[in-house]
Amino acid sequence: MYPYQITSEEQYTNDYRNSVENPEKFWADIAQYFSWKKTWDKVLSADFEKAEVKWFAGAKLNITENCLDRHIEKLASQPAIIWEPNDPNEHYRVLTYKELLFKVKQFANVLKNNGVKKGDRVCIYMGMIPELAIAVLACARIGAIHSVIFGGFSARSIADRLQDADARFIVTCDGAFRGAKDIPLKAIIDDALESCPFVQRVIVCTRTHTPVSMIKGRDVWWEDEIKIVETQGNPDCIAEVMDAEDVLFILYTSGSTGKPKGVVHSVAGYMVWTNYTFVNVFQYTPGQIYFCTADIGWITGHSYLLYGPLSAGATTMMFEGIPTFPDAGRFWDITQKHKVDILYTAPTAIRSLMAYGTSYLEGKDLSSLKVLGTVGEPINEEAWYWYYENVGKSKCPIVDTWWQTETGGIMISNLAGVTPHKPTYATLPMPGVLPCLVDETGNELADNGVSGNLCIKQAWPGMIRTTYGDHERCRQTYFSTYKNMYFTGDGCLRDKDGNYRITGRVDDVLNVSGHRIGTAEVENAINMHQGVVESAVVGFPHDIKGQGIYAFVIFNGMHVDEEHTRKDVIQTVSRIIGAIAKPDKIQFVSGLPKTRSGKIMRRILRKIAEGELNNLGDTTTLLDPGIVEEIKSGRL
Ligand code: WTA
């Protein structure tokens, strides 16, 4: 049990009230249960006009002491991480709290030996192996800022991120196993480094034994560096004393402009927020096995595979593979094998497994499961019930957790078994979260039973602090649309009982398989293809991915034929952004629907992509209304 764990609906109501009426007292009471080297001078100062927020200012701490050292006395031999490999025939690995702490210190010393200092940015581009968790925590140990990049991003995307963060250090692997594939991570890094001569050191961990090039003076092997630390003979690594508001990490995410932004989170607020939300949303009980299927390359992996669970002394599963390898029963095999208590996954994974039917669940003992969770995108009713009935056997509450990279942790969700779930609804705000719905002009919609744009009116500990290297961008993007509010970019409905249901993005951001992708980013990539004149990208409903990517492209002179050209365009996007941003459909058009002032009317393209051909709204303001008919008739 955790002293701040909410165990009844009444307590939720009380705690919620206290948290919004007196946030400073509320969070100070919770923060006292963490390990500080010095406590704070002021719990909260917030100025939304300037996008300036500070939590626990003046306090000193190190997050790894909270995630590791402080558990050692009681939990030394308890598994901290259970790692399940891609190939079920390979043996799984268990790292106890004691072992994890040892390895984190060891790799922290490797980083130091390689010249990494407090405040330096370290880019981590690895597969889902325990060394990834170790590398992340080792950065936090010495106060280096980690910037983890998901393995699905291309060399070009990596280079953009390295340049933006001026990251001089990289930790990677020779390759990564993902299902039947083997991704050559180091080779991709090598390509990225062609345009990043400032990178001083690349530490390469062995996983796939894929041959790699190792450049003298720049590239070193993880294993060799560990040996050096061993011969140095001092296994300790004192945790760097960090200010509460020092930067913990940067994580890049897509927005409505072409360039991804580096969302910055700071140490103390993020720690308290991820811990508090983890313990309360999942109702974690010490000793339980908790399985978050997200990749550490995304915020869910940061907050709910690593920092939240580890700071709570939990046992967290880490899975290298994919849900459908070697077959669509893999999650259920893992659940049975490790007696998983809590399973947290994405609607897209549920839908993809649902498509295989229930035969893969037959004969699998899932009786250990107590709580199910979803994150990343709206869950449709069919998937919700499939998950509830077939996986949870109608006994496990489902927490539908709404949040964002920028919010650091869960913002709106029921609390498992404590507050009721409601299919397709994230339900109620977490203590500390004051949501509000506004119309286009910024008027607050105070009643229940309304829809609007979702904003947050009060600062919460885990919120974004800045966008790396460009604070004005942070202010503009999140705090300038509506006065004195954080704008989420999501549309939302509040039912008559005050439950929130997120309906999807209201900006030009797509959510493809739970991954955020900006349409402008995809357009930029398509436009780089040699024959492309112009393009417009919109989302369309996709059975498995939630949203698919539909591109309308004006092309000058096909190469061979349409089908070839289409593949070339897809290849270009893969190169520029990564495989995750590949368009599902590419329709070649001779023009795009534009207003007289030259603005593309996406609303019309969205309707066409969605197949709503007879309901396009007013097209009379178009420069060339005829183009709409052509696009309609060529729809894929
Ligand atoms: C969407 C992922 C509906 C939403 C943690 C948000 C959701 C974006 C939910 C953030 C949910 C996330 N229901 N939509 N439970 N959770 N979203 O930054 O549009 O990768 O703005 O963070 O995902 O995606 P991100």
Shape by Cα distribution:
globular
Largest sheet: 8 strands, mixed
* Number of contiguous helices: 19
Q: Supply the CATH architecture of the domain at 86-240.
A: 3-Layer(aba) Sandwich
Sheet with most strands: strand arrangement: 12-11-8-6-7-14-15-24
The low-pLDDT segments are none
Percent range for β-strand residues: 15-25%
Strand tally is: 31
The CATH C-level class name of the domain at 86-240: Alpha Beta
Work out the helicity level: 25-40%
- N→C terminal distance: 55 Å
CATH topology of the domain at 86-240: Rossmann fold
**Which compounds are bound in this model?**
5'-O-[(S)-ethoxy(hydroxy)phosphoryl]adenosine
- Overall pLDDT score: 96
Compute the CA-based radius of gyration: 24 Å
Q: Kindly name the structural category.
A: alpha/beta
Textual characterization of the structure:
The protein is of the alpha/beta class and 636 residues long. Among the domains are: 86-240, Rossmann fold (3-Layer(aba) Sandwich); 509-633, 2-Layer Sandwich (GMP Synthetase, Chain A, domain 3), CATH 3.30.300.30. 31% of the residues lie in helices and 24% in strands. It contains 19 helices and 31 strands. The strands form eight sheets. The protein has an eight-stranded mixed sheet, with helices on both faces. It has a seven-stranded mixed sheet with strand order 5-4-17-16-18-19-20, with helices on both faces. A hairpin with a 2-residue loop joins strand 9 and strand 10 (181-183). Helix 7 packs across helix 8 (185-193) and helix 13 (347-354) crosses helix 14 (381-391). The longest helix is centred in the N-terminal third of the chain and has 17 residues, at 97-113. The termini are far apart. 53% of the residues are buried.
